[in-house]
Predict the 3D structure of the following.
Amino acid sequence: MTNLSEPAVEHFKDTFNRIRTAISTFMVGQQEIIDDVLIAICCGGHVLLEGVPGLGKTSLVNTIAQAIDVQFKRIQFTPDLLPSDVVGTQILIDRDGRRELEFQRGPVFCNLLLADEINRATPKTQSALLETMQEKRVTVANHTHPLALPFFVMATQNPIENDGTYPLPEAQLDRFFFKLQVNLPSHDEFKQILDRTGGNSQPHVKAVAHGEDIIRMGSTIREVPIAPDVQDYLVRVVRGTHPNESAPKSILQFVRHGGSPRAGQAIQAAARARALLDGRFHVAREDIDSVALPALRHRLILSFEGEAEGIKPGMLIKDAIKAAKT
Amino acid sequence: MPAHPEIETLVRQVAGRHHRLLARRLLFLTLAIAAGFCLVGSLVWVLRGHAVPAVFPWSVVGLAALTAIAIWQLRKMTPAAAIRECDRFFDLKDAITSARHLAATAPDDPATGLQWNWLAPRLAACDPATITAPFPKRTAILSGLLTVIAVWLALLPASPAVRAAAKEALDAQVRIAESKDQLEQLIEALDKDIVGAEDKDALKLDEFRKLVKSIDEHGDRNEAARQFARIEQKVRDSSRALDQKRDEETVKLAAAELAKAEQTEARQLGKKLDAKELKEAAEMLSKLDPNKIDPKDLKNPATKQQKLTEAKEEMAKMRAISKRLAAAGKQRQGARQAQSGKGDGQQGQGEGAANGDGAAGQGEQGKPLEDLMAEIDDSAAEFEKNLEEVEADPDAEWSDEPMERASSALGKLGKHLKGMHAKNLAKSKLDQLRDGLAQAQSFSQGQTQMLGLASGGKQAGTGSSWSERKERDDSQKNGQLAQLQGQHGSGPSLSAVEDAESGSGVSGRRGEARQREFARQVESFVQRDDVPESLKLGVRNYFENLQSAAPAEK
């Protein structure tokens, strides 16, 4: 028995629209990115934003934090950043003449963490986020510290500056719910950005939702039913990204490893959110198609040939979807 | 599954709609393919001049229909596919799939209600009639065109040449069958005519009966000609094996000698031999057999004179005949010796003839007829001598031996003559059979219009044309009547007036007659189908040139 009720659905749609509207008061264009980020947040997932500098990645996260009214922290990842700088550390303090070790919380103790230019930190520091992102807790000196909910990480990375960067390992990439590629704004959007940001008055984004709303939205999403046939389709899409016998030729040629079950979980959750946003109470195949790309593109590990050919994962995912439909 | 009936109805209607559209598409596609196939197949027949057999287009259409039905059944929408098609076509975004699932698994769930509330108004707007597919105009036009052309080709009649060939083949089959039938009847008739077991053995009719039965009625004309020719060859060989020309010449000489005799019996015997009534001649010879004399009768002087007088009378008759026969035998032997004494150039030929005659002319225990005749005369002379001795000397011993030897010699000659008669009869029957085969071959080749081997004429009610009532030309028994008629009409005349110089000399008439006979035989022989056309032409030209050539000046 599910608890999907009309008020819950209304709350979801209403809250989502309010947040979207609030964000749009500052952000110009990027509607798809905003929707995907919000879907990921509602589903309790983390987002990796990839784009060249100056496209508003950090601004987007800042705006979302303002609109949701949650505790927001930002870490600028640099090569000398230490894990303790992320999760916190124990420091020796003198308390009433007694010297004792006290855990000093790092910036991850927040609701929304912006990991700016995450690929500039060393793998050791990057891996410090692993437990945090998956388990939503921090363990330091045998003490586990739970994080406040909702918790989500918004990481950004620059795809063109590779000097002095440390590409995220597959295990860490798989933790991200979505990987979104932020593209250049259109001509009109560009002008609007200039108009909004060129003057003295800075647009102020009002908080239109709270952390509890996000948690409730996540709960609503999980109630959306999905038919076995549609679920079969989802599984076929994810399994189709693996280079097995039934995979399309391009996958066989260019993919070394495909999407994980975690990818399937992400797609199912995001598809449910899409269905609700579309006003439906069931998941459709087209919902899966619409979220497959951001959920799978960072989870495909290309073969040497794929890397050498500069194959984009988007093309391979389209092939997998096409194969799943037949 | 407790699904909503509206959903099930819609799914059923959509599936039905798709099945109808699929059937329409398959119909035109199948028609186009079948018509194309028929067209190509018909073209093959038509280009070869044949009419398209009716079974071909019908079987193609039948096969195509079966294939189309099978494909339609295989490609019919499954219920799951129909549900998916409903969702896709009406843009219901998997709502029907989800609704059926929710109704089946959680009918009381609030989500089920919400989902149905979302779906119900949209479902009401779904009209299966809106599922359309463009009419397959190109396929329809193509199939129509191909069908029209294929039907036209299928209805085209066979070319005149093919029709004529078919008719000819059918006619040939009928003629072969009729020839075979009549040959069988002829063999049966020949079999009935011959009563004696020896005569039947000489004929070997069973072998020919088997050969005739083995004729393939369904073969073509050439094959039939070959089969008839093979049988004819066998018959000719058998007939040749029965040839007894040498003995016949001896008999002819004997008949001539006997005709000179003063005794009536001898002349009668000569007449019988001349008429080749050998069986009757043999019976007459058996009557000449002297009665046995009992030695007791010779001891009594009263009966002795009577018996001796009777024996002498019988002896005189026998001697008159035996002397003539012996003279004929000597003539024959002289001729044989003269023939064997000829030069080396003619030796081979002479030997061949002698061998041939010898094989046919060996009498009882392998003796030639002339030897048997000499033996009769010798034994008759001995018997006569014995009679004279007994008559002259009353104490002389009577011996039966010379009389028995004379009697035995007469018996041998009679038996030989009877054997000759049987062989003659068998040969004539074989010649009849050979003539019949030649006529049957000619008839099966369509060179003659009628075959009258069997006796009794045609069946009641079966008419005949004027041309078929023409008199048979018995001078030509090789069956090649058509060709020979042509020679009669347009060829050079075969009759000629001999200009002979006065006085004694050798006329060339006989030689020319032989030449014409030879030409006729050769031309008749080369009319067979297995002789190349060039050879036929060459032979014809050769004899025409011979006939038209002026005689060399002397």
Remarks:
- The mean pLDDT of chain B is 77.
- Chain B touches chain A through 21 residues (CB under 8 Å).
- Chain B is about 70% helix and 0% strand.
- The longest helix of chain B spans residues 401-444.
